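in:
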């Protein structure tokens, strides 16, 4: 049982009746989940002043394309340097969905099916929910976010708890990092919580599938090289738009992966993508140097992660509309503690984005909301002690050895088949039943929590403006739908 340091009283936001319903749910959930629920503290107050906290999400950053995670191209020398003073999680995962639900999970410690803020529901975060930024703000932290638009727009509820929530609208680190630097330099004495987000390694509707400033995408290719007969466009569609259209056909099985893009085209796209990772890494390296000049870096808690990976026909799809397989589900997770404690360690224990909020709040010595579904990773960070036995990515269960996909019934043994090439053919029937029941237990817990949290509320909804729709289409969304989270509760 992981002892939580404190707990937020959410009575101001949820009625007594709902608290009772939630209490019963949470007690039941604690029995079946890897997370634990603590007793409320007596004071509900922080123990003392905490560190500056910086959370950085590089959207669509696939872990195995980073040299820090073994990629042969030197794509992340800056993060590798950072890792000398940080703890690196080798088996970290998002909890389902694309940019919007995945980041909302980071900010609320609720699984996507529990917060239910996804493109397909049209919902936004009710003000009654408690966000990570709100807890920091409530306890005296200055809070600021500099994000890159699209699904990170404030209208979905992300701005809740931030003093400043600035949308760079696709400008990437070129806009985000200077704005963050200026904000940090102008601050007063209070500690800071800073959230940064960029689409620099995300596909765009530019001429090439992946492009970043200064020609960074060409780094691993001779300038101007394109595969014969393919420059990123086909039949008037380019980049994200083309890839999305192809992916929609792949999803509908009206197009064979072998006919979508050839091996040379795929390698070319991977090289462009890798070049943008290196470009983003270089920018981040300079930003960290600036934090050092400001006297912030050493004493800050800094986390770098991503909301999901990217697929290059690894499992017959493109972009990141398909969840569950390692290329999408696994994310980088690098945690630098204040003054580099534990630096250089690799952690093989399972971790999930739903755990970020409890982890950051525990290190900041702040109360963790009682409804948080994640578990602080502190025992894993400091002692390599497992804090969870498994996790779920929408309707996929990731255990220490097996991964179970509810939609196909396939099970992969990740100790023997790291690329998930061949489903286990002769899986013990009892084990299969166990995996199924475990997954649906977790999903049903999420659904029950969402229903309890929604009692008495009319969940706010939003519609996209034509401009927002255009911006999202430029990122490759809406042409194909986000994966639908599980909604049934099979008996
Ligand atoms: Zn994303």
């Amino acid at each position: 049982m992981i002892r939580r340091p404190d707990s937020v009283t959410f009575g101001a936001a949820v009625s007594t009746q709902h608290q009772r319903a939630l209490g019963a749910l949470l007690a039941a959930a604690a029995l079946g989940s890897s997370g634990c629920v603590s007793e409320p503290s007596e004071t509900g107050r922080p123990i003392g002043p905490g560190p500056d906290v910086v959370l950085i999400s590089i959207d669509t950053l696939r872990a195995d394309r980073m040299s820090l995670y073994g990629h042969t191209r030197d794509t992340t020398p800056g993060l590798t340097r950072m890792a000398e003073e940080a703890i690196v999680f080798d088996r970290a995962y998002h909890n389902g969905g694309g940019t919007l639900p995945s980041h909302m999970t980071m900010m609320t410690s609720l699984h996507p099916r529990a917060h239910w803020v996804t493109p397909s529901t049209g919902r936004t975060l009710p003000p009654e929910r408690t966000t990570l930024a709100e807890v920091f703000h409530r306890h005296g932290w200055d809070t600021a976010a500099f994000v890159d638009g699209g699904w990170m727009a404030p209208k979905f509820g992300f701005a809740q708890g931030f003093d400043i929530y600035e949308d760079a609208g696709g400008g990437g680190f070129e806009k985000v990092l200077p704005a963050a630097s200026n904000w940090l330099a102008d601050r007063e004495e209070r500690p800071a919580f800073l959230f940064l987000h960029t689409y620099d390694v995300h596909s765009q509707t530019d001429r090439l599938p992946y492009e970043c400033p200064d020609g960074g995408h060409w780094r691993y290719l001779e300038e101007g090289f394109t595969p014969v007969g393919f420059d990123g466009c086909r039949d008037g569609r380019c980049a994200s738009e083309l890839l999305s259209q192809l992916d929609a056909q792949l999803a509908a099985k009206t197009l064979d992966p072998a006919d979508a893009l050839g091996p040379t085209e795929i390698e070319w796209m991977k090289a462009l993508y890798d070049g943008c990772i290196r470009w983003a890494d270089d920018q981040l390296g300079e930003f960290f140097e600036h934090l050092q000049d400001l006297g912030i870096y050493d004493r800050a808690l800094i986390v770098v992660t991503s909301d999901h990976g990217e697929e290059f026909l690894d499992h017959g799809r493109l972009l990141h509309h398909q969840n569950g397989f390692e290329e999408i589900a696994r994310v980088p997770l690098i945690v630098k503690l204040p003054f580099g404690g534990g630096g250089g360690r690799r952690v093989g224990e399972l971790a999930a984005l739903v755990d970020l909020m409890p982890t950051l709040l525990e290190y900041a010595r702040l109360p963790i909301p009682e409804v948080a579904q994640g578990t602080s990773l502190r025992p894993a960070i400091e002692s390599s002690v497992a804090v969870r036995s498994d996790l779920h990515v929408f309707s996929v269960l990731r255990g220490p050895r097996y991964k179970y996909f509810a939609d196909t019934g396939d099970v992969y043994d990740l100790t023997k088949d790291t690329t998930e090439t061949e489903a286990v053919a002769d899986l013990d029937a009892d084990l299969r039943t166990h995996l199924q029941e475990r997954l649906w237990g977790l999903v049903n817990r999420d659904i029950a929590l969402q229903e309890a949290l929604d009692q008495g509320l009319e969940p706010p909804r939003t519609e996209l403006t034509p401009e927002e729709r255009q911006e999202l289409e430029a990122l490759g969304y809406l042409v194909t739908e986000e994966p639908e989270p599980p909604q049934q509760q099979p008996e």
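note: The pocket of zinc ion is lined by residues 59-60, 98-99, 307-308 (CB under 6 Å).
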